[in-house]
Design goal:
- It contains six helices and twelve strands.
- The protein has one domain (about 5-320): Metallo-dependent phosphatases (Purple Acid Phosphatase, chain A, domain 2, 4-Layer Sandwich), CATH 3.60.21.
- It is an alpha/beta fold.
- It starts with 5 loop residues before the first strand and ends with a strand.
- The model is unreliable at about 115-120 (pLDDT under 50).
- It has helices spanning about 30-40, 50-60, 80-90, 140-145, 185-200, 225-235; strands at about 5-10, 65-70, 100, 155-160, 165, 205-210, 240-245, 250-255, 260-265, 280-290, 295-305, 310-320.
């Protein structure tokens, strides 16, 4: 008897790319001014270039099929920040092998990299045109047939072996001192359709978004405004795994759905090398394998155990 193939997903989040230039005059806003102040007074001492480099090197030394980056790629969503962050992403492979969903820090101002002019819109596996994040957040050919959209606002689908990756954009521009997210009504409708078609296609459904997907995981001012609707939808249609970031904390909980168990997993930031408020840098590898009548999902953590420490193994557990 042959062993069913295994799919390995690497999940990194909240990169907060640790190089924050000054906004240009045309990029200036109060939101960015206070974000910059916060960067220099607080975040800069936590999100370290050397930590992100060590995590990245470790990721590259391990086997995986697909890399997921779930938002807060940068701090102020400035063009210069994105140009550096895009170079960082590209070291891991082609855009067809990497999925990105935006976070609240990716909406600090107008974002030309998420919304390039129509003529500049790239397609999957095409080199970024005019420096765009879109190639990392559009459906592939199989995903389009399953109801996935072409981004950046509506859910995209990518099929990796027998795993369907479903990316949601929960990022919205927010007022000062707010960090909430929201899924549009159309997004939820498209997501429902995708969760049904991917289940019919006998695929493992892995949903990705930046904000925590269920009520109660974070405060109202920084949570997903319609997390109750997303929870109900997940309970109704089912999904096997939901990956998120935003909280900079490792978290696992189980949601019972009409199709079985859905694992909800939050991963800490990938760049925190000095801990004063949040958990130290970590990323997770998910190994997914089809079993007799269901799926087996194993999570392996890699990250720092001490300030400025090396990247070490944080253990493997089966999600049950
Ligand atoms: Fe973050
Ligand atoms: Fe966030």
């Amino acid at each position: 008897m042959t062993t069913p193939p295994e799919t390995i997903l690497a999940h990194l989040t909240d990169i907060h790319f640790p190089q924050t230039p000054l906004p240009t005059l045309s990029e200036f806003s109060f939101k960015r001014f206070f974000g910059l102040l916060n960067w220099h007074l607080s975040r800069k001492s936590m999100h370290l270039t050397e930590t992100l480099a060590a995590i990245s090197k470790d990721v590259l030394s391990l086997p995986f099929h697909h890399l997921i980056v779930s938002g807060d790629l940068v701090n102020l969503s400035l063009r210069n920040e994105y140009e550096a962050a895009l170079k960082w992403i590209e070291q891991f492979g082609a855009s067809g092998d990497i999925s990105f969903v935006p976070g609240n820090h990716d909406y600090y101002g107008p974002n030309p990299l998420l919304y390039p002019k129509e003529a500049m819109r790239p397609s999957i596996n095409q080199a970024p045109v005019g420096m765009s994040l879109l190639p990392f957040m559009i459906s592939d050919e199989k995903g389009l047939k399953l109801g996935g959209a072409t981004g950046p606002d509506l859910p995209f689908v990518r099929v990796v072996n027998d795993v369907a990756l479903i990316g949601l954009n929960s990022g919205v521009p927010t007022p000062l001192f707010k960090a909430y997210g929201k899924l549009s009504e159309t997004s939820l409708d498209v997501l429902k359709h995708i969760l049904i078609t991917t289940q019919k296609a006998n695929l493992y459904r892995c949903v990705i978004l930046h904000h925590p997907p269920l009520p109660g995981i974070t405060t109202l001012s920084r949570g997903l405004q319609n997390d109750d609707l997303l929870q109900s939808l997940l309970q109704e249609t089912g999904a096997e795994l939901v990956l998120y970031g935003h909280n900079h904390k490792q978290h696992h909980e189980v949601l019972r759905t009409n199709t079985g168990t859905c694992h909800i997993v939050g991963t800490p930031s990938a760049s925190i090398g000095q801990n004063n408020r949040y958990e130290l840098a970590r990323f997770n590898l998910f190994s997914i394998r089809r079993s007799a009548h269901s799926w087996t999902t194993k999570m392996r953590g890699r990250g720092l155990c001490e300030n400025h420490g090396d990247v070490v193994d944080l253990g493997t557990s089966e999600l049950v």
